[in-house]
Amino acid sequence: MRPDQREAILHLLKLDPALPEHGLASEGVPFVGDGVRRQRISYAVPGGKRLTAWILRPATGNGPWPGVLALHPHGDRFHLGGDEVAGQCGQREHHYGLALAAKGFVVLCPDLPCFGNQQAPPGMPDGRLWEQHCLSRALAHGRSLLAETLDQLRCAVAALIDFEKTADFQVAVIGYGMGARTAAWLAFVDSRVSAVWMHAGLGQQRILLDQGRLLPRHNLLPGLLALGLDQADLVADILPRPVGISFGKGDRIATGEAVAPLLKALNDRAAQIEKTRIAIWEGDYDHRFPIEVQARIADQLHAWMG
Q: No. of H helices and E strands in the chain?
C-alpha cells in the first residue's frame, strides 16, 4: 500500500488522537481452574468510560509470558462477547483465549462494542437493534463503529503491554470471524501489535457484497472501496510483521471466492520483502474453529514471539 493510500484510510477512520491513560486495575478476586489463572480487570477508553474484561495467564510459573489480545466472533451472540473466549460460557470451540493461556500466554479477552458488558443499557433497544443504533450514532457524528472499536482496542493493547507479566512488551492479536477482520484492522493501525492471527472471517468486501452477503457493522469503513482498496490491501500492509490465516474450505460465510484474492495479495507482497513470516492453513471444515487448529496456532505464535 502506498503512503498516500494509508493516509487516506486513516483520514476516513478519524481515530481519536488523544486516547486516555488506560489506568489498568484489578477487579475482584482471581481464581484458578484448568491450569489457568483468571482475573477480572478494568481499563479506561474514550468517552469517560471504563471497560471490564478477563485477563488470563498460566496458573503456575512466574512468567513473563507473551501477550495476546483475543477478539470474539459475532454470530448474533451479543450476551457472550469476551466471556466466551475466556472460557466462561458458550461453545468450547470458542474458548481460544483460555486455550492460549493454558499454552503459555497472558491473554486479554475484551468485549467489542454492543457485546457483553457493552450491551444496551436499560430502556434502549437490544441485540441487533442496539448494534444498528450504535452504528447510526457513529455515522451521525461523522465516524464509524469500526473507529470506535479500534479506539477501545488501542486502549486494551496499552493495558496488556503494561500488565506486569507481559514479556518484552510483545502483544499479538488473534480473532475469529468478526474478530479476525477486526484483528486485521487493529494490526493495520497499531504498530505495537507484533503479530496477528485471523481465523475464518477474512474476504474481499466487494466480492462478499456482490454475493449478497451482509458485512459486519463493526468492520465497515465508509469510503474504503471508493479508494480502490479492500480487505486484501489491509492484510498485505501488515507485513513484514508475522501474519497467520486459517480457514475452512467449506466456509459459506467468508467464501473461497472472497478469500482467494486476499491470499494472492499477501503472497505478492511477501515476494517483495526479504524476510517474511506467513502461515496460511486451509482445513477440511466450514466456519468452525477446531480445537486442534487452536493448538497449532499457539505453537506458531510461540515460534514467532519467542
A: 10, 9
